[in-house]
Amino acid sequence: MVSTSSPAATGGLSRRHALLLESYGRTIMQDVLSVIFEGLLFSAYGVFFIVALYSIIRRGLKSPRNIIMLIVVVSLFGVALTQWVVDVFSVFKEIQYLLMATDIPLHHRRKLADEVFENFFPLQDTLFDISLIIADAVLIWRTWAIYQGRIAAIVAPCFLLLSAFVFALIDMTCFLDYGPLPGGDQICPQASVTMWALSVGTNVACTLLVGFKAWQHRKMMKQLNIGGKSHRMSTEHIMSLLVDSGFIYSLLLLGQVICYIYVDPGPDSPWWYISEIFKETGQQIIGIYPTLIIVIVNFKRTLWDEYPVTPANSAALNSSKWMIHVNRDVEQSTFDSGSEVGSQPRTISRPERKDFGFQPRHASNTSVTEC
């Protein structure tokens, strides 16, 4: 039996060099696999980004609300693009240093490859912090709109967001300022994980608030025995979608804990690959979900049909978003946009038939006045 330490078993290389090349190859495989998954997710993000741009431009850029949404969508996508480009560049430089730097001794190449990632880490960390804060702000805005501008409903998420912003500034300062910081040896190691925990809390709080509003709406619809089907999504479906996607996003964000808790499963373990993929794809997920929220909101307000309302008899329907009054003589609707709190109500006739926020498809001879 041939020994694995013989020159024949190692292709003429010494055992030390053979083990080094094996570890370099494993490292390259892990990093390339992570970049591939990140690239696939970024491609999907690109599709959502284009749809989001279309939905915003379709509504026009005259209102400050739409301009802010455009800035948010472009900023999040720009951050995701920068992070992906940096990751791809770092992997290519790693391959160059580990396999193609023939003038550098084999055992010194690992240090050069690691320096590439270390040089870009402050930039990556700063971009991650910025995108996380922007994403949380979008979630709070969506919750605020669903609660019709009630500040009391978003006090807790806003407090968590403000706290996360403070720790994000501390985290970025710790990376960018190489001078001595008062108490930096105690605060800096905990700043990043604290900001992440506060962000998870913000997402869970917003999702629970939206879920409570969805539960109230569903309970009200059942009590009033309102039926009818629509070939497009109803208000109940869209709120359920926001709740379900919110919990999924919170779970994915919770999975990023592996980025802050160092656990070394060993380079041969499958968990090593899973942890690397989670670290890279998390950067894209943070931008995708807020973009999807904006797409859902815009297309709900511009393209989705109202769903039918068929009360058993003439009655008044009061909910958190609208009131339905029976009008036997005139068929008209008075709308106030639910997403744009403070906008003036307007009356339109049946032939105009436009969508403004979460509104039911009213039965014949009814008028709808939104609260």
From TrEMBL:
TM spans, by residue?
A: 32-55, 67-86, 126-144, 151-170, 190-212, 241-263, 283-299
Keyword Transmembrane recorded: yes
Keyword Endoplasmic reticulum carried by entry: no
| Region of interest called Disordered, as start-end residue ranges on this chain | 334-371
Enumerate the UniProt keywords alphabetically.
Membrane, Transmembrane, Transmembrane helix
Stretch forming the signal peptide? none
Bias type Polar residues, positions: 334-347, 362-371
This protein is called Uncharacterized protein
**Which organism's genome codes for this protein?**
Mycena sanguinolenta
